[in-house]
C-alpha cells in the first residue's frame, strides 16, 4: 500500500507541477422553481423566486480544458398557492454547494467563450416556509418541522444536481473577468419520507434553477 501511494505521488506531482492554478471569487443571482406541483395538501400552482449565490473557485489548467471545483452559498426556493385559501406561500432553502465542472474554452487568452458541465453536491444550511396574507406573514423552520400536509415527508438535508452552462472570459488587469450562466437540474427528490413510503400519487419534486454570475480570478504558479 505504501509503495502504491508513493508511486501515485511521484506520478501526480509532476503533472500538477506543469499546471497553473487560478483562484477567484464569483457572485450573482439565481432564479429557481420546482419541476412538479407537489401532490400534497391542495397546492394548485407553483412559481419562481429569485435568490443569491456566491463563493470561491479554483481552476486547474490553462489550456482548452480546465477542471473547476467551487464552494458556493446558494439560495433556491419556490412559491405556491393553495385552493380556497387567500394566502401565498414560499419555501426557500440556503445551501452550501460544492460544484465540480469541466470547462472547455475556445478563443485566445484575451477573449474566450467557454462551455461547462458537471455535478454539484449541496448541503442544506437552513430552510423556511413563509405564509403571507393581508400584509402579515408567518415563518416556519422547515428543517425542524418538515413538510406541511397529511404525510410525514421532510425536507431532504442534501441536494445532488447536474450542471450545464457557458459564458465569456476577458483578460482584465492581472486576472480574468468572467460572465456566466448555468442551468441546474436536480437528480433527487427535494423531500424525504424516511422509513415510510411516499403517497401513491407522489411525483418527485426537483429543483430547476438558473444562475447568473460575475467572477474574477488570478492565475498563479505554485510549483
In short:
This protein is mainly beta. The protein contains 2 helices and 11 strands, in the order αββββββαβββββ. It is elongated.
Q: In terms of structural class, how would the helical and strand content be classed? A: mainly beta
Distance between the termini: 27 Å
CA gyration radius, whole angstroms = 21 Å
Lateral arrangement of strands in the main beta sheet:
1-2-3-4-5-8-9-11
Mean pLDDT value:
81
Task: Describe the SSE topology.
Layout: H1 2-17, E1 21-34, E2 43-60, E3 65-82, E4 88-108, E5 111-133, E6 136-141, H2 142-145, E7 154-155, E8 158-172, E9 175-186, E10 191-192, E11 207-220
Antiparallel strand pairs: 1-2, 1-11, 2-3, 3-4, 4-5, 5-6, 5-8, 7-10, 8-9, 9-11
Q: Can you walk me through this structure?
A:
By secondary structure, this protein is mainly beta. The strands form two sheets. The protein has an eight-stranded antiparallel beta barrel. Strands 7-10 form a two-stranded antiparallel sheet. The longest helix has 16 residues. The N terminus is likely disordered.
Please give a handful of descriptors for the protein shown.
two-stranded antiparallel ribbon; 11 strands; mainly beta; 2 helices; eight-stranded antiparallel barrel; 223 residues
Amino acid at each position: 500500500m505504501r509503495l502504491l501511494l508513493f508511486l501515485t505521488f511521484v506520478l501526480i506531482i509532476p503533472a500538477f507541477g506543469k499546471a497553473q492554478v487560478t483562484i477567484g471569487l464569483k457572485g450573482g443571482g439565481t432564479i429557481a422553481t420546482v419541476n412538479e406541483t407537489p401532490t400534497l395538501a391542495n397546492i394548485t400552482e407553483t412559481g419562481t423566486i429569485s435568490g443569491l449565490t456566491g463563493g470561491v473557485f479554483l481552476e486547474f489548467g490553462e489550456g482548452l480544458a480546465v477542471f473547476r471545483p467551487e464552494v458556493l452559498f446558494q439560495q433556491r426556493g419556490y412559491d405556491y398557492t393553495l385552493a380556497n385559501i387567500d394566502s401565498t406561500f414560499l419555501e426557500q432553502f440556503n445551501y452550501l454547494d460544492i460544484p465540480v465542472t469541466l470547462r472547455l474554452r475556445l478563443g485566445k487568452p484575451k477573449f474566450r467563450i467557454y462551455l461547462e458541465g458537471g455535478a454539484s453536491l449541496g448541503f442544506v444550511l437552513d430552510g423556511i416556509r413563509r405564509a403571507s396574507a393581508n400584509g402579515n406573514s408567518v415563518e416556519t423552520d422547515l428543517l425542524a418541522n418538515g413538510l406541511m400536509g397529511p404525510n410525514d415527508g421532510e425536507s431532504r438535508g442534501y441536494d445532488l444536481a447536474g450542471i450545464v452552462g457557458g459564458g465569456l472570459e476577458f483578460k482584465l488587469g492581472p486576472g480574468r473577468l468572467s460572465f456566466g450562466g448555468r442551468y441546474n437540474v436536480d437528480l433527487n427528490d427535494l423531500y424525504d419520507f424516511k422509513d415510510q413510503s411516499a403517497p401513491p400519487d407522489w411525483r418527485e419534486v426537483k429543483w430547476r434553477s438558473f444562475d447568473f454570475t460575475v467572477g474574477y480570478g488570478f492565475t498563479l504558479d505554485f510549483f
